[in-house]
Amino acid sequence: MAKSPLRDSVKNYYQQQVLNKKQLDALVSLQKGKTAEKKDKRLLPWVGVAAAIFISVISVTFYFSMPSDTNLPYRIAQEVAEDHVKMKPLDMETARIDELKRYFTQLDFALIQSAGIEDETLLGGRYCSIFGVTAAQLRYLDFNRDNKVTLYQVEYDVKTFGELPNVGEGKPPIEVLIKGLSVTIWVEKGLLLAKITEN
Q1: How far apart are CA 195 and CA 81, in angstroms?
Q2: φ, ψ for residue 66 (rounded to 5)?
C-alpha cells in the first residue's frame, strides 16, 4: 500500500478531530469575548472625538457668553433702561447741580454739568449703580417734548465698561434703542454718561 504524502496525512488527522459540547461552548464564549474587545477598541477613537466636540461646544458657548467690548454698550443701555423705567423716587429734589454735588458724598467722583444736557431742567437725583459700581441718576424734564430725561453718571473704567467714545476727543456718542427708549452713551471728563430719552 502506497504511503500518502505528509500533507494528506495531516489533513486527514485534523478532519478526524471533533470537539465535544463543553469544548465547543468554551471556544464560542472565547470568540465572543474577543469580538466585544475588538468592538470596544474600535469605539475608543470615537469616544475621544465626541469628547473633543463637546468641549469645543462648551468653550465656544462660554466665550460668547462672556462680556466683550462689542456688547458692553448694549448691556449698559439695558441696565440703565430698566432702572429708568422704574422711576424710583429721587433722593434729593433740586434744580441746581451744585446742591446735588454736595449731596452725593458717597461717589468717588464729582458730578459734572454735561454738554449733552441742553434745554432740559434738572429735577433732582438719586443714587444707583451700573455694573455694581455706585453711580448717580439725574432726572430732568424736557419741556419741549413734555417728557422726562434721565442722565446717569459713573466713574469711567475701561476694564469695567470697555472702550467707549470720548466726546472730548471729538468722537460721537453711541446710541442704542432699547424698550422704546433711546440710550446715548459716551465718556466726558473722565465719567461714563448714559442719557435716556423716550421716543
Answers
A1: 10
A2: -75, 150
Query: What tens digit of pLDDT does each residue of 4-36 get?
Result: 566 666 566 656 666 677 776 777 777 776 555
Query: Lowest mean pLDDT: which of 10-14, 84-88, 98-102, 119-123?
Result: 10-14
- Distance of alpha carbon 124 from alpha carbon 139, whole angstroms: 6
- Residue 199 to residue 182: CA distance in whole angstroms: 6
Fold of 72-198: Protein Transport Mog1p; Chain A (3.40.1000)
Q: Is the pTM of this model over 0.90?
A: no
Q: What is the SS3 assignment for the chain?
A: CCCCCHHHHHHHHHHHCCCCHHHHHHHHHHHHHHHHHHHHHHHHHHHHHHHHHHHHHHHHHHHHHCCCCCCHHHHHHHHHHHHHHHCCCCCEECCCHHHHHHHCCCCCCCCCCCCCCCCCEEEEEEEEEECCEEEEEEEEEECCCCEEEEEEEEECCHHHHCCCCEHHHCCCCEEEEECCEEEEEEEECCEEEEEEEEC
